Amino acid sequence: MPVEVGQIVEGKVTGITKFGAFVELSDGVTGLVHISEVADSFVKDVNDFLKQNDVVKVKVISISPDGKISLSIRKTKESSNNSHRKPKQEELSFEDKLSKFLKDSEERLLDIKKNNESKRGSGSYGKRKVL
């Protein structure tokens, strides 16, 4: 049975490169999971997520006219997500993430400022005497 776009199938990792992983599907055809489709988080090295001969679920995201198959591991998880679950921190809106970042940054800057002021105030070295 040939694979179709949108289908979720199992396959075996047959090769890993800098840009992704090749996965052999059940009917003997091979597709590519691009590095951006390996996981929801940032993937610097595919080897951190996949090993040769791993059996993985993949979603067929496109088939080019010349027969190249693009696959996604990440999108298999999106399909199986429940809509009634509580949002995780990664699912905060951009504005909420920005607000949290600004608050954390201000707190860190205050800590640094206090630390620097306490260092300046102690000891007599580093201070100039005005004559």
TrEMBL record:
Region described as Disordered: 112-131
Name of the featured protein: S1 RNA binding domain protein
Gene3D superfamilies: Nucleic acid-binding proteins
S1 motif domain segment(s): 6-74
Entry's Gene Ontology molecular function annotations: mRNA binding; structural constituent of ribosome
Organism taxonomic ancestry: Bacteria, Bacillati, Bacillota, Clostridia, Thermosediminibacterales
GO biological process: translation
Function: Binds mRNA; thus facilitating recognition of the initiation point. It is needed to translate mRNA with a short Shine-Dalgarno (SD) purine-rich sequence.
One Pfam family it belongs to: S1
Bilayer-crossing regions: none
